[in-house]
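Usage example:
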Amino acid sequence: MTLRIGIVGTGWFAGKHADLLAATEDVEIAGIVGSSKNKGDVFGIRYDAPGYESVSDMADEQVLDAVYICVPPMAHGEIERELIGRGIPFLVEKPLGTDAELPQDVLGFMRLKSPDLITSVGYHFRYQDNVERLREALHPGRIGIATGMWMGDMPQAEWWRRQEKSGGQFIEQTTHIVDLLRHLAGEVEEVHAVYASRFPEEEWEQTNVHDIGTVTLKLKTGAVANISNTCVLPPGVGKAGLSFYTREGLWEWTSGHLKVTKVNEESVFAEESDPYEKQTKAFLHALRTGDTSGILSDYADACKTQEVTFAALQSALSGRSIKL
Ligand SMILES: NC(=O)c1ccc[n+]([C@@H]2O[C@H](COP(=O)([O-])OP(=O)(O)OC[C@H]3O[C@@H](n4cnc5c(N)ncnc54)[C@H](O)[C@@H]3O)[C@@H](O)[C@H]2O)c1
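Running the assembly step on the lines above writes:
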């Protein structure tokens, strides 16, 4: 059976997903929603798909098995509600919004209208072989402390640099590390964050996001974690990862490698899988068969990651610890 997929968004990541879908057998891109019909039409030429101005226009005209939502954080809400109302499954890029309230509202609406709707969220690192290796080897109860980071440069996208549009770096980008922490070490119960704007607008025009920050997280197991981020580095310079310090040894994960150090023993595993491909396959399999067991992050689970990253912002703004 050929799956007919619609796409919302015409930017970088809409292109990444559209290319993956176009390269998959028995998948057809049915339509593209842009911020204007013309933008959708232009983006759609490569995939022989028509453009639309809104999800409702696309869904009125096309039979859709699912929709990929690839829009910036501030553009979420109405798109998801429209799809839920029509019972159309979706894969949505992280993060789910700029705050935690909107995703919770969407989740409540989903539970009411379409509780079994198939959803997937773009926390693609969960699909890496090395993350699966960590899941098998790490016992959350044996973790003492975890440290993570996302240290990079200031992205070019105008929306990314505006707090009200992106939610800031921790919500927009470092969310990947928070999500991995939850996936591998369990739920978070308290956060305390310190953020600052070290090099404000003189260096980056029209920017109001914090450019440095560090967040301490207390986990339900009793372990603690610290995750820091910055976007002050020069273009192309950066480092991101998550390390676990356990009674059995040290596990250091980056997107390319996993290094395991035990007494008199050291192993390094290069990441060889393409997690985006695995994420796509799991979602398409769920659409075809109804078997969602391969989807490693769904909307309800991603709401919990969003709750942690938004609590960190609230903590940074108020100077208080936030209990979840
Ligand atoms: N999982 C990953 O590895 C990964 C990587 C990159 C981006 N992303 C996520 O994907 C999302 C999009 O990022 P991007 O890099 O493609 O951004 P982008 O700026 O390249 O593109 C965003 C697109 O969304 C469109 N848009 C905005 N509001 C819209 C609306 N209401 N309806 C339709 N289109 C709308 C814009 O016109 C633009 O074409 C972000 O949330 C980002 O975090 C995820």
